[in-house]
Each structure stands twice: as C-alpha cells, then as structure tokens.
Amino acid sequence: MKELEIMLEIKNLTKILSDKLILRGVSLKLNKGEILAVVGPNGAGKSTFFKCTVGLLQPSGGEIIVDGEIIKKKSAATRKKIGFLGHESFLYSTLTPLENLRFYGKLYKVKSIDSKANQLLKEVGLHLFKDVPIRSFSRGMLQRLSIARVMLADPEILMLDEPHTGLDQDAVSLLNMIIKEKKNIGTSVLLISHDFEQVQALADSVAVLKKGKIIDTAPLNADLNLEKMKDWYSRAVSEG
Prior knowledge:
The chain has 240 residues and is α/β, with parallel strands linked by helices. The chain has helices at 46-54, 76-79, 97-107, 113-123, 139-151, 169-184, 196-202, 226-239, and strands at residues 6-17, 20-31, 35-39, 61-66, 69-70, 82-85, 157-161, 188-192, 205-210, 213-219. The protein has a single domain (6-92, 155-239), classed as P-loop containing nucleotide triphosphate hydrolases (Rossmann fold). β7 (157-161), α6 and β8 form a beta-alpha-beta unit. The longest helix has 16 residues, at 169-184. It is globular, with a radius of gyration of 18 Å. It starts with 5 loop residues before the first strand and ends with a helix.
C-alpha cells in the first residue's frame, strides 16, 4: 500500500487569549488529496484554531508543519501553499471582481493574471458582473468572488471556515463542486463546519474539537452515514 503523503501536520497547538487557554494541545494530520472536517460545539475554539493555522493569529505553542517544513512567523514561501476562506472576504468594496483578482494575482505573482481571473469568474458565475464594483454584491456573490480569490494561486492546501454559511443552494452546489474538483487533483482540504450535511457530502474524515482539544476522530464512509455521524458526534461531545 502506498504511504500517505502528509501535507499539513499540527502538533500540540496551544493559544492563550487574554490569559485564557483557548487551544489546549491540538494535534491533527491532513494527507494529500484528503478532506478533513473539524466540527464542535460553539466556543470549542474552532475559529481560533483556523486563524492560528492560516497565520492570522500567532500560536502560543506547538508546531504547524506544511509539506514537511515548520511554519515560522515569516515563512511566506511555505504559507503560499495555503489558501484560506474565512469569515472575512479580504475583498475591496470599491473595486470590481476583475480588479480584486488582479490585485491579489499580483500579490501572489500569478502568471497570465487577466486570463486566469476571467476564467475563474466564469467558473464561479460572476463573469457578467466582472466590471461592477462589488459594494452592492450580495453575501452569496461576495462568497463566490472570495472562492475565486482563494483559487488564484492554486494552493496545495485549502482551509475553509464555515464556507457554506449564508449561501443559496446554487452557491452551495458550486462550492462543493469546486472542493471536489480540487480534491481530485490532489489538493488537501481542511473544512471547519457546523453543517453536518455538507461534512457528510464532502469529507473523508472528521475530527471533534471541544474546549480547545481534539476529543475524537473518525473516517467517513458508508458505515458512518449522516444519522450515525450525528449520533457519534453527540456521544463524543457528551463524553469528551
């Protein structure tokens, strides 16, 4: 059997905020081409975990290893391998979709940026609005553009924090299609979600975060359908 290639390894990650220990030794592995979902109750530390992993917060302790290299505060080359979609869009409201993608394309040193930006806008269904300032865009349209922004640099690891929130069914279907396509070409995906249906539809495995610790993990397969996953999660949270 071929040995799995670990793309992201988190070792004993801790984070203290305002003298409160939010993350208490989180350890996880994400393999190449795998979709790993992290679920947990409100206040479990999911958003803090996400921000520490993508570099928006500096961890208080532990290691984050990307493709065999330990991420340090200024390891920009390693961080370029991670594309992330969080609660903030990081888009500029006075710019058009095309202008936003051009800006980030230059930042990421993307080749043939206009061609790639136009193609991505077609893929996310925004090409007809490419020259319209995004200040009037709906939540769903902004999320579609954020997806295009994340895909610009062809990241090897995708980190997605509650990406389905506020999306209509068409946008959910589009996002899931893109995630599955990326998985099929070997992109690794870490998905933080409270939506068990989307977790079941996308993930290969799931981890439960409670009070800043991973308390259980399980593979998602035919034996762990949606109802069984919900039962497993409930037991893990009540016992963990």
